[in-house]
Amino acid sequence: MKEKFNAQREIPGYAKLRNQTKIFGIWDDHDYGINDGNVGYEDKIESQKLFLDFLDEPSDSIRRKREGIYASYTFGQSNRQVKLILLDMRYFSTEQGPDGDILGETQWQWLQSELDSSTAQITIITSGTQIIPNDKPIQEKWANFPKSRKRLFQIISDSKKSGVILLSGDVHYAQMFKYTCDMRYPLYEVTSSGMTHSLVDVVGDMMRVFSLEFSWESHYEVEHVFEGHNFGSLIVDWNRQILQLNIHNENSTIVRHLEIPIAALQVEGDKILKEGCHEGPQPFWMNWPTIYFQYALNLGWLLLATTTVLTPFLLMRALYRMIFGCGAPSMKVMKKKT
Asked: To bridge 132 with a disulfide, which of 94, 102, 177, 186 should be the other Cys (CB 3.0-4.6 Å)?
């Protein structure tokens, strides 16, 4: 892991970014050290140190003194403040399932305290995996921990904190969502992932249409999937009182864009939104553990490889039969007559 983090730091583009700006980061599974990793990962203490070293986290940082790397930061002055909350979804996470817990009780209590005590006008909550969509099969997501997902929405609503925005990654494509079910104002989520590689790089064009229909789309989607390499930006225009949510391609061109008036993200008394709910029980296959998908994917690649190897041989054999009207030549060694 240390060698991989060091290699990343030496990439020219990343090195330039480190020199020009302060980086605040949170991990997902592969930064953590194991695919779909959770509380059971044996090397998580070492991973915590390595990841914080990678982020140039100060030696006296609270993130180095407690379990997990969750943290919060506040930027700006008086009535122009933005609070950034980084959630650790790996260190305390149990196995996925109806009773699974993604944050752990200590982190839940910390999150509630951070929201209740905040004076910021805009609060950004980050997550390694997608939070809002509950209708995507196969992939990791908060909906695989239904009690945790419901608790997060409840904490946001109960805090009566205006201006909350969600940011997520993981899926190797970009997307935007809007959630209004039992919330005090519309809750938006921006997913940006795949600065160096995207899902299309893996599944290819042949699987693209299938993936779009089967795995990527959601009831809560407001900006359609962007499948290429991408990164996101969130701009707070205090003068116009507008939030700009952007997805950029690898050339920095904006390819997906939302403008949201800050006034549209305000708590209004006891008002609760009810429209647009798609929160019924999901089919059992919707929350398949990702490991089963991986088994199926590996089987698919094995079948494809086998077919690729056998096809030329079968074609040659069929051609031989057409020309000579008999079976393929025998592989038996003929004995010489004496």
From this structure: 177
pLDDT in tens, 149-180: 999 999 999 999 999 999 999 988 999 999 99
Burial class from Cβ neighbours inside 10 Å (0-12, 13-18, 19+) for residue 207 reads: middle
Backbone φ and ψ for 241, nearest 5 degrees, come out as: 55, 50
Whole-number Å distance between alpha carbons of 6 and 80: 36
Contacts of 194 (CB under 8 A, 6+ apart): 172, 173, 174, 228, 229, 230
- Residue type, position 158, single letter: D
- Whole-number mean pLDDT of the chain? 85
3-state secondary structure of 262: helix
User: Which residues sit opposite 73 in a β-bridge?
Assistant: 84
* Terminal CA-CA length for the chain: 69
Phi, psi of 219 (to 5 degrees): -55, -30
Q: How many CB atoms lie within 10 A of CB 313?
A: 10
Pick from 23, 70, 69, 72: which is nearest to 45 by CA?
Answer: 69
Burial of 338 (0-12, 13-18, 19+ CB in 10 A): exposed
With cut-offs at 50, 70 and 90, classify the pLDDT of residue 254. very high
- 3-state SS, one letter per residue, for 287-338: HCCHHHHHHHHHHHHHHHHHHHHHHHHHHHHHHHHHHHCCCCCCCCCCCCCC
User: Which tens digits make up the pLDDT trace of 76-87?
Assistant: 998 999 999 999
Average pLDDT over residues 18-28: 92
Rounded to whole angstroms, the Cα distance separating 23 from 25 reads: 6
Q: Which of 86, 110, 105, 79 is nearest to 94 (CA)?
A: 105
- Select, from the ranges 36-40, 69-73, 277-281, the one with the highest average predicted confidence (pLDDT): 69-73
β partners of residue 74: 83
pLDDT band at residue 336 under the 50/70/90 scheme: very low
Q: Report the greatest alpha carbon distance in the chain.
A: 107
